Amino acid sequence: MTDAELAAALAEAAGQLLLQVRASGLIGGKTLGRAGDATANQFLIHALREQRPDDGLLSEEEKDSADRLARSRVWIIDPVDGTREYGEHRTDWAVHVGLALNGVASVGAVALPGLDLVLRTDRPQRVPPGNTRPRMLVSRTRPAAEAVAVADALGAELVGMGSAGAKAMAVVRGEADIYLHTGGQFEWDSCAPVAVAAAHGLHVSRADGSPLVYNRPDLYVPDLLICRPEWANRVLESMRVLTSQTYEASS
């Protein structure tokens, strides 16, 4: 089984487990989210250690180990991306199984169990045509001020959505054109989505255009841009202007 096949199989199976836990109806809300996280994490951790014992491993729900820093192959997983949405019985949550090769998000799969979809790096599909007026994805509960300002500059329509994986895959699926996040995330929030988006020909970078690097000692990722290639330069230029204005106002 190839790495991409393994990522897809694990993401799909974990998603099915999560749906079963939720369908039981025995728990709900935050308790459901915690139970789902724990269940999916245990499955993914045990499966990866069985299938790829020599690789490094990083999970949101597992204690981190510096051992991964010496590995060129590191699996980076998020058992439930969008725990709140999962607990609220929404569809905008995801399972992330990504593989970073020498710090680059290279292989992976993102499952959207609520939509019965798995998007993967080894089966890229043609991204549908863009929208006449660009659609920019932001957090449905706390949209970042920078993203709102860039949307205003581009004349973009703001679309609120839950998890990072759901947002990134909405661009892959043609439901939106731009996903700009400036509120900070961690490596497991974006590794698999970035790998899948790049495999589908989308632009992926930091908000200043610099490359995204994974398997670092500091897991914090301050910002992220996933968008259709034709919008990348305009979004990055808008961010440069905004950053410059913010700097001048504070000095």
Automatic annotation (TrEMBL):
<protein>
    <submittedName>
        <fullName>3'(2'),5'-bisphosphate nucleotidase CysQ</fullName>
        <ecNumber>3.1.3.7</ecNumber>
    </submittedName>
</protein>
<dbReference type="GO" id="GO:0008441">
    <property type="term" value="F:3'(2'),5'-bisphosphate nucleotidase activity"/>
</dbReference>
<dbReference type="InterPro" id="IPR050725">
    <property type="entry name" value="CysQ/Inositol_MonoPase"/>
</dbReference>
<dbReference type="InterPro" id="IPR000760">
    <property type="entry name" value="Inositol_monophosphatase-like"/>
</dbReference>
<keyword id="KW-0378">Hydrolase</keyword>
<dbReference type="Pfam" id="PF00459">
    <property type="entry name" value="Inositol_P"/>
</dbReference>
